[in-house]
């Protein structure tokens, strides 16, 4: 049975983009515990989102610590935190990992689709997308930044369509930015990308009719203005911009945040990024690469930012994959490879297997709901976080203020807030350099460490079991009230 020249079997077979989505979704759910346990901030985001849902208010002053209580807070991730909390309410921590996997899979499906559209070569685009996926995977965590990875792909798609002369309203940029600026503070990356397209458009105007703006330049200027206004439509207005720039300009805080450090190319995890950098340098410098000015600017700019800070590598990857795919397509013109690609593209264009994405999502949700082992694997690792110690605290409440191990702050909020408030957690852009230095003074037993604990009225501490701070506290007559292989709790 055929209809419009398409066999019924074509309605069952997935396209490469759909197959990539399903494979990535399944793969991410297979490593779901890693999404939860590689970083200590997930718990904080869940606690904040849960608080917003319970109170119906977005906190604009600190209510989660006793050290900074009442200080102004810029909730630049509140919408992502609500989404994570909703997923947790419906499906538990498996819902959190499923949401993370869905966002990342959707992002790289869009990356592949754009790479294939620009290059016309599905296999080459798939290979470069997989390389970008490997490079970006260093920062696959259940945190709000995953939404920036997705929104960078959406943003680039809109800008590229405008550049090609498609009839798109510039207000689309404002609408996307309205959501993005409330999901994650790295929405600023959108304006960096927009600037590359604007520079190309204005350069073209200058070479053509000086002092005359082309329709593209006007569209980009209007869209950028709409996006700028939209970025201010958040609970603290311009405060989200100030928070981002204050943090990035503080060398102490940036230097003490692992993900902001440059990539260490002695580690195998960074090899895919190194390969992509090599391709970027080779293609950007080639005369026959056919790269437009905005493509060269984006490759050069994001390569520099990726080399400066590992946190930028996922964004470099999603920016670079379509550009590299398009440029490499120029290199294989006339090769036998191109004939193979043409045959694959002809077959794939006939495929209509639209059931695979909804089917895979449905199967995962049903597995979470009805297969206990799937739910049990998605948990905070008791060897990484003080799970047993918090269980003990729930049955043996401790009075007074705590001092906590920095990476555990988010988990403690997830389990114990509002009954307990932390000394510090992973939101260093809020806690700032002064408090972070005081925390470091205590944890490294630097001169004055006991005075810091006294100044903040600390009555008990929860730290790693074998940490030297625990030994020093016991020598100072603090009393051990709990210990396991992961954590120790001591009282003054």
UniProtKB/TrEMBL annotation:
Superkingdom of this protein's organism: Bacteria
Keywords: Membrane, Transmembrane, Transmembrane helix
Annotated transmembrane regions: 12-32, 78-108, 120-138, 171-199, 219-241, 268-284, 353-371
Name the UniProt record assigns to this protein: Glycosyltransferase RgtA/B/C/D-like domain-containing protein
Organism: Bellilinea caldifistulae
């Amino acid at each position: 049975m055929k209809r419009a020249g398409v066999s019924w079997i074509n309605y069952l077979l997935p396209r490469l983009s759909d197959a990539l989505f399903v494979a990535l979704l399944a793969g991410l759910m297979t490593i779901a515990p890693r999404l939860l346990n590689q970083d200590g901030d997930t718990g904080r985001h869940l606690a904040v989102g849960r608080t917003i849902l319970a109170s119906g208010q977005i906190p604009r002053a600190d209510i989660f610590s006793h050290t900074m209580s009442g200080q102004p807070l810029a909730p630049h991730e509140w919408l992502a935190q609500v989404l994570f909390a909703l997923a947790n309410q419906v499906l538990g921590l498996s819902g959190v990992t499923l949401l993370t996997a869905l966002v990342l899979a959707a992002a790289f499906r869009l990356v592949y689709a754009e790479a294939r559209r620009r290059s016309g070569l599905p296999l080459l685009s798939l290979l470069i997308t997989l390389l970008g996926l490997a490079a970006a995977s260093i920062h696959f965590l259940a945190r709000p930044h995953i939404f920036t990875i997705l929104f960078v792909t959406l943003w680039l798609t809109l800008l590229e369509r405008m550049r090609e002369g498609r009839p798109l309203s510039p207000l689309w940029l404002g609408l996307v930015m309205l959501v993005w600026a409330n999901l994650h503070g790295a929405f600023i990356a959108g304006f960096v990308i927009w600037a590359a397209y604007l520079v190309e458009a204005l350069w073209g105007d200058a070479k053509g009719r000086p002092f005359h703006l082309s329709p593209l330049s006007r569209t980009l200027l209007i869209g950028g203005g709409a996006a700028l206004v939209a970025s201010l439509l958040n609970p603290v207005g311009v405060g989200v911009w100030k928070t981002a720039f204050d943090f990035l300009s503080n060398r102490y805080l940036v230097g003490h945040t692992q993900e902001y450090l440059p990539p260490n190319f002695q580690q195998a995890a960074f090899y895919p990024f190194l390969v992509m950098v090599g391709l970027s340098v080779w293609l950007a410098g080639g005369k026959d690469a056919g790269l437009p000015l905005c493509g060269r600017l984006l490759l050069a700019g994001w390569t520099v930012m990726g080399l400066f800070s590992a946190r930028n590598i996922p964004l470099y990857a999603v920016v670079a994959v379509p550009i590299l795919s398009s440029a490499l397509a120029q290199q294989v013109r006339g090769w036998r490879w191109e004939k193979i690609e043409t045959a694959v593209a002809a077959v794939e264009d006939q495929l209509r297997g639209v059931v695979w994405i909804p089917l895979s999502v449905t199967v995962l949700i049903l597995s979470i709901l009805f297969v206990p082992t799937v739910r049990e694997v998605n948990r905070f690792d008791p060897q990484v976080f003080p799970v047993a110690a918090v269980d003990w605290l729930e049955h043996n409440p401790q009075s007074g203020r705590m001092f906590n191990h920095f990476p555990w702050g988010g988990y403690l909020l997830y389990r114990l807030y509002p009954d307990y408030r932390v000394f510090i957690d992973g939101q260093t852009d809020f806690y700032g350099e002064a408090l972070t230095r005081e925390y470091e003074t205590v944890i490294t037993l630097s001169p004055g460490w006991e005075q810091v604990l006294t100044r903040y009225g600390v009555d008990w501490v929860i730290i790693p079991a074998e940490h030297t701070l625990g030994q020093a506290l016991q020598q100072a007559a603090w009393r051990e009230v709990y210990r396991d292989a992961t954590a120790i709790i001591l009282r003054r």
